[in-house]
Amino acid sequence: MADPIRSFFASRMKLGPTEPNGHAETLETPEDQRRRVHIAACALLLELAYADDEFSDAERGHIEAVVQRHLGLDDEAAHQLLELADEARREAHDVYQFTSLIRDSYDLGQKTLLAEIMWGVILADGQIQRHEGRVLRKIASLLDLEPGYLAEARRRAGTDAN
Length: 162
Hints:
This protein is mainly alpha-helical. The chain contains 8 helices and no strands.
């Protein structure tokens, strides 16, 4: 499963193929769109994990477990997806390309669940750094999540961590 994810990333996360008239052609299937959204969501989780300049083993374990559970991936596929998301995160100028894709693809319930997962990443190492909270609030704003939803997601993530 890892090779299809890598080939998808190579072909779809960049600009699409160009038609003879010079315009980019969108050949994206629903499966392609789903994979792009998964990469974007993972990139946001990794952005939070790196927000305090320390990607702890607890944060890594939390992200890997969440990716496996919510996306139904095995260890190898989840690891490959996280590698691709990390590559996309490092190449990105900011998080907007990821948040805009998720904002347009997820409904309110999915965005709230993602916020809960993001809080879980922040809480995984047992401490909330100021930078982590700031990055999460920025992401939530770009996802059009109101502060009340973010607070509820934090409460649920804190309850699940206990």
